[in-house]
Amino acid sequence: MSSERRLVIPYVTEQSPRGERTMDIYSRLLKDRIIFLGTPVDDQVANVVMAQLLHLDSE
């Protein structure tokens, strides 16, 4: 058995006049300018958070 832990990422579906759209919950939160930290911050997590902050700043 692999020692890797498998992540379960929930998806949400939203309705709009243009149709249905399904996205992972983290993308949906980012759309509302929410960054979720659910793990200790290491170099990899810090890089992801910085990329999200830069993306939000550019909007």
From TrEMBL:
Name of the protein in its database record: ATP-dependent Clp protease proteolytic subunit
Sorted alphabetically, which Pfam families does this protein's record hold?
CLP_protease (PF00574)
Q: Which PANTHER family match?
A: ATP-DEPENDENT CLP PROTEASE PROTEOLYTIC SUBUNIT (PTHR10381:SF70)
Q: Where is the signal peptide?
A: none
Is Protease included in the keywords of this UniProt record?
yes
What molecular function terms (GO) are annotated for this protein?
Answer: ATP-dependent peptidase activity; ATPase binding; serine-type endopeptidase activity
Q: What is the lineage of its organism?
A: Bacteria, Bacillati, Actinomycetota, Rubrobacteria, Rubrobacterales
Keywords of this entry: Hydrolase, Protease, Serine protease
Tell me which InterPro entries the record gives: ClpP/crotonase-like_dom_sf, ClpP/TepA
Q: In the Enzyme Commission scheme, what number(s) does this protein have?
A: 3.4.21.92
Cellular component GO terms held in the UniProt record: endopeptidase Clp complex
Give the GO biological process terms: protein quality control for misfolded or incompletely synthesized proteins
Q: What class of enzyme is it?
A: hydrolase
- Entry annotated with the keyword DNA-binding: no
